[in-house]
Design goal:
The complex is a heterodimer of chains A (266) and B (279). Chain A has 266 residues and is α/β, with parallel strands linked by helices. Chain A has 9 helices and 10 strands.
Chain lengths: 266, 279
């Protein structure tokens, strides 16, 4: 599905260069739900921008379904952390969801159909003709998710999507994402700094080191599905996984698994 | 409804009062320069209903509108180009600064040389003077579009044309309107000035001619009409702005954390959180 091979991203040149992402490799299989966790400032946003084809990698490749990502792929959608900036306030909910479909050359009847289907899936079907700013934060992020789903992606990237909403809304949205990914049969790569969220949602958790960012460990999450906010989080296995991931993130950089910074060149 | 009436009453109280004072104070005036308001109003009705409408008012309005439209259209167009290209912006910066600070009436003499004393000269002067606030605000607005918003447009495959038309331009409209509002008053000023310098009709021409022929009530009636025209255009502009930027008001109110429900009663101000007492 998605294969990232020795990806590096360096800003600037020479001694003042900033190694945002250093030699990162991982795979995401079709249908998987993979979370990426790491401390803030560990290059998660840079990584996502490379995967979206917004910025070129310094070296290494990201391949989506056999195609090297060098510009935004058609089959990829992104949900931003800041819904207030990624939704256009001058367009209604309908306008926001159908705008990308228009560029895809989908006719207007089909556009409305896709939008309605996506809005129904996120439970906002009555809000078609409202403006984003008339909705609460959680509802706005649901509109952003609906926009991504209506785009019919094979892979959905989510960049700390629930960092700006309150805890209760966050739990609801987590369950919503789990539900719609089944319904729409989409692969999800989810970036977060919240360990509980990562374990609760995923099949695998990719733990990153501080910059220059590498993979510290890939943790398999073999918790039963469907997940449940109370039951799943009460399992002893959940607690064990959380402690393990927590330790990986907090552990000092020198004890990291493999060789590092000398390896990448600018 | 009563609120609305009260607001209208409050807004019109001062103008009405001033007119009454003017009317009463000038009633017995024998001064040639300050005729009684009664006389000015009578002259106004004589001249402008509708004797000189076609000969002076209409030409002025046409020049003004043409100049303003040209200024806004070319200001937005050039502003988009410059705003989207850092290279072009650096290259044009000094020129734009030079031209926008140049006192606009100074170019009337060369404009007459090149374009004659006709309508095209006046439209040119008006457009040349009014374009700058639109241009500069468009550049600012275009450059200020949020980086996340632009990323979104690219990730979701919007082509360049669509990104400009549906994302960049709408995002810049609040600033474009602010620039156009300034352009409106500049356009009106330059309409009058250009008509005073070289014209055989128009409001500016009429006011100057009346003064030169000692038709003082006519002169005042022309000034009165100019004031009314300006007021009217501003009113139309404000209405258009309100319509076009309805989303912006709602969005801003929401960003400030007020309850938003378009068309409903204005949001109540939030309670101020009582400060903790000093220990």
């Amino acid at each position: 599905m998605l294969e990232v091979t020795q990806l590096t991203k360096t800003y600037g040149h020479g001694p003042s260069a900033v190694h945002a992402v250093g030699n990162l490799s991982f795979r995401v299989e079709p249908g998987e739900f993979v979370c990426i966790v790491g401390q803030s400032g560990c290059g998660k946003t840079t990584l996502l921008k490379c995967l979206c084809g917004l910025i070129p990698a310094t070296s290494g490749t990201a391949v989506l379904q056999g195609r090297v990502i060098d510009r935004p792929p058609d089959k990829l959608a992104l949900v931003f952390q800041e819904y207030s900036r990624s939704l256009l306030p001058w367009m209604t909910v309908r306008g926001n969801i159908t705008l990308p479909l228009r560029s895809k050359g989908i006719d207007s009847t089909r556009r409305d159909e896709l939008a309605e289907q996506a809005l129904t899936a996120v439970g906002l079907v009555g809000s078609f003709d409202r403006y984003p700013w008339q909705l609460s934060g959680g509802m706005q992020q649901r509109v952003a998710i609906a926009r991504a789903l209506a785009y019919q992606p094979e892979i959905l990237l989510m960049d700390e999507p629930f960092a700006s909403v309150d805890a209760q809304t966050r739990a609801d949205l987590e369950d919503l994402v789990l539900r719609v990914r089944d319904e729409f049969d989409v692969t999800v790569l989810f970036v977060t700094h919240d360990i509980d969220e990562a374990i609760y949602l995923s099949d695998r958790v990719i733990v990153l080191t501080p910059p220059p960012t590498r993979v510290r460990e890939v943790v398999d999450v073999d918790l039963p599905r469907p997940r449940d906010q109370i039951a799943t989080k009460g399992l002893p296995a959940f607690t064990r996984l959380r402690a393990h991931v927590f330790e990986l993130i907090k552990r000092p950089a020198d004890s990291a698994g493999d060789e590092l910074s000398e390896q990448h060149t600018t | 409804m009563t609120r609305r009436l009260r607001a209208i009453g409050l807004e019109s109280a001062l103008p009405v009062m001033l007119v009454v004072v003017w009317w009463v104070a000038s009633a017995d005036s024998e001064s040639v320069y300050f005729p009684p308001l009664r006389e000015i109003v009578a002259t106004f009705a004589d001249v402008w209903l509708f004797d000189r409408v076609a000969s002076d008012l209409i030409p002025s309005l046409v020049r003004f509108t043409a100049g303003f439209v040209v200024a806004v259209a070319s200001g937005v167009g050039l502003g988009l180009l410059i705003g989207l290209s850092p290279l072009l912006r650096r290259a044009t910066d000094p020129l734009v600064d030079f031209l926008r600070t140049l006192p606009k009436p100074a170019i009337i003499p060369p404009a007459i040389l090149f374009l004659g004393a006709g309508a095209s000269m006046k439209v040119f002067i008006i457009a040349f003077g009014a374009i700058w606030p639109v241009l500069l605000n468009t550049v600012d607005g275009v450059r200020g579009v949020d980086a996340d918003t632009l990323d979104m447009a690219r990730v979701y495959g919007l082509r360049r044309g669509e990104r400009i038309r549906r994302v960049v331009l709408p995002a810049a409209t609040p600033q474009i309107f602010a620039g156009a509002r300034l352009a409106l008053s500049i356009a009106l000023i330059l309409m009058v000035v250009s008509e005073m310098v070289a014209s055989t009709n128009g409001l500016g021409y009429f006011v100057l001619l009346s003064q030169q022929t000692f038709a003082i009530p006519e002169m005042w009636s022309g000034i009165l009409l100019l004031g009314l025209v300006g007021y009217l255009f501003n009113g139309i502009f404000v209405l258009a702005e309100r319509r076009a930027l309805r989303w912006h008001r709602g969005w801003r109110a929401a960003a400030l954390g007020q309850a938003v429900d378009t068309g409903a009663a204005p949001a109540r101000p939030k309670n101020i959180i009582p400060q903790a007492a000093d220990t």
